[in-house]
Amino acid sequence: VLVEEDFATDTSITEKYNLVSYGHKVGLTGIKIAFVDLHPEQLNDNIFSETVACNRGLIGKVFTNVQEAEKWLLS
Known about the structure:
Elements: E1 2-5, H1 13-25, E2 32-37, H2 43-55, E3 59-63, H3 66-74
Helix pairs in contact: 1-2
């Protein structure tokens, strides 16, 4: 799954944590998810979300561009 996000405002760390944790609860384990945020200033918070996802058994990675995300998804 490729998610490309272009929200100028960022969600809180708590919201990110809850959203990623919910992904585990609804069975997204075993699905590769590449997340591209078009706002580089949000990268550190997105890396936090990536860590939470990995700790929950999800296969997810944060990217800054679609090309790198597609390459990872196809690997």
